[in-house]
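User: Here's a protein and a ligand (zinc ion). What would the complex look like?
Assistant: Let me lay out the input and then the predicted complex.
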Amino acid sequence: MVARKFLIHHQDSNFDVDYDTEDGFEVFKFQLFSLTAVPPDEQKILGGDDDRVISDDSDLIAVSDKLRLVSIKDENPQLGSEIVKSDEELARVLQAEEEALMFQQFGVSQDSRQFEQRIRPYVDQVLLYEDTRRQEAARKTVPVEKLEEKALVALAKEGNFKPSKSELDHAFLLQLLFWFKQTFKWVNSPPCENCGNETINQGMGAPNSSETAYGASRVELYRCRSCSRITRFPRYNDPIKLLETKKGRCGEWANCFSLYCRSFGYETRLILDFTDHVWTECYSMVLGRWMHLDPCEGIYDTPLLYEKGWNKKLNYTIAISRDGVYDVTKRYTRKWHEVLSRRNLITESALPYVLKNITRECRKNMKISISTLDERDQNEAKELEKNLHSQENDTISLPGRLSGDKEWRILRSELGSTSLSSSSCPIRKITDDHVSKIYDAFSPFISRLVELSSKHKAIEGVHFVRGVLIDLKKSPFKRRRVVIDSNEFFIRELLPSFEMMLDALSLKSNVEENGRKVEICLRDDPVRTSIALPVVFHAIDDVVFNIKKCDEFIKSSVSWPLVKVNRICCGSVLASGEELPFGIATSAFDGTRVSKWEEPNGAKGCWLIYKAKDAEVYELCSYELMSANDAPERDPRDWVIEGSDDGGASWRILDEQTAQMFDNRFQRKAYKVKLQGFFANVFRLRFLAVRDGRTNSRFQIGSIDLFASGNVKCLVQNPYCDFREADPTDYEPLAMKPQVEPEQMKGGMQVQPSEQTKADMQAQPSEQTKADMADVQAQPSEADVQAQPSELKARMDVMKKIVMVVLVLVIGMAVGVGWT
Ligand SMILES: [Zn+2]
């Protein structure tokens, strides 16, 4: 394995790249990416005298000094994020659509009544969502403050601590979706009302008056296999009843969820797919368009889910709202000519008239400005036409249906693939300065514990602190506050050493009642506390575990890995692939246990690049990896960690590990880096193999923590080398797919793979339960923790100083183009 030099020309600049052809073409493309900021999937590499396109089977060495990189986007600047099909392909598609349209005219009913009959009932149905009594009843069942907190935390994790109203509305809507998905139950055959056993369908029964009162004109009957009692399953149409029953099939799900959306003021549509599914669309002010939301699946903004993921043969997809009915089929297909051939209820020329007539009726008594609605309609029509002929994003794979039982889904051929995942990830900025601050804050606290007490007493002290924090966590997030008696051991002896932790948690302490009480309350932004609290609980568990492991709890034990300082934070990551939306790469850096980075195709090798914030350089001295919540077969086994001091043009191996084994879930393994003394601004983690790659295609990891030595090198322009202060304004606005708080993992698991995974996930105690548990579920790791003797205090001091200014680095970094 020898790296060769390659010379790449890109936009009037030349770049030297050290690359070993055995590493694979993807690695090469990434190196180019880190130098030129042209993402791998937008790169076109040309080489040789004839400027031919280079691919992974080209002889790269033969043209090593004649390579040219162009961005596909630069070539076609008119292209947006969606890449338009080639002219020839487009012509073929248009031709097929024209033919389908022609055939449709002959085979289609000239009588539009059948079509109209399908949608009429729903036009009345959606008006129920406007009823204030129903809306109020709906709002009462929602833990609004909890969802608002989760929405704010999800935004904060993207670096957005001051979201606009539209951004918060958008994020809240997603939390409402995840909450609903967890609250509502899917029914195939209901369990016996008498004994809870399995039942079998006995056909339909006549509804009684209490059932018809809530619109259940159909009642399914089920006989118990064990006690023979009949259980009724009335199919309620009135969503107010569904708020109480909280169960049903997709009809009930979408009906009830749409009421929730309206209750919180979102412009909402019930989406009727004539092939038998129902879901919801809401207008997102952030996106400036309608967004697909499937409550049964907990999936949003993924309209091709049905055609591509479930292999559905769509025909009519009609949106019904208080202000009209709309044909939105084009949002849900990229095979319009095929869809056209199946549309035989009404001619394409008659369809718009029927819809327009109903819409006119709907709008007759509306107070909303009709011109606003018209403008919105026109924009939507344009958007649908534009997207219809855009290329599918093949890097995203869509899951099959997950609601309903497996046999039923197989029967419907809707099983499809197993997950929503992306093989081409965006660069994600990490908001994790709170994690590093919390880790740092343990050092004065643990030092004080060592001074004061025995190991046993120390653990007691940590438990006391945890109790206080649990009380804080339980109190409403905007008014978190606890009051403690000043005579408590913690207050008398430990509080001063805990001030740094309070600061890290964005909390403060006040002395009250002439010194008899101490109040701990919010310091400023409640969201900073909300994002930090889960981290501190998991860190406390680790601290207790590590204290227990110390032979003697003395001054020398106050070192790594018990005390972890200089955790590198606020960088950006790019991964070879990720699971959406819950297994994204940044999840490995959020300091909590239940989130993870999951690579759907990572079992045979995957990578993650970590680029330091603002081109800061670090001497990586140690790192910790934590196994994820489930599926041990996906744990990393062999890996290489490399560093680059030139933005990714060349790499040095810093550490290599083989045959590693995580014996438990959430187990942390700490490693001291073999090659010390190398300063890098980019790190590459290449995971070469997982624990069992024969039966499993996935890789996953619970967390990755990188620790720098106290030796600091800085740029001249950045003399204060501000390690810990992340500037929130530095980040991009709300992404389309907001990251979600780990507590929603369970809800999100339904977007996730195997039945086994789901079962595992459900077996997880909730975060709160875990925090409440009196004792720590220690995650053992014995031999692997290679304690590193380090002088904590010296490190802390060094952290605040500038040690060196190295001009060479300035030049080095000027070459490496930063990610923005
Ligand atoms: Zn029974």
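Summary: The first strand starts at residue 4 and ends at 10.
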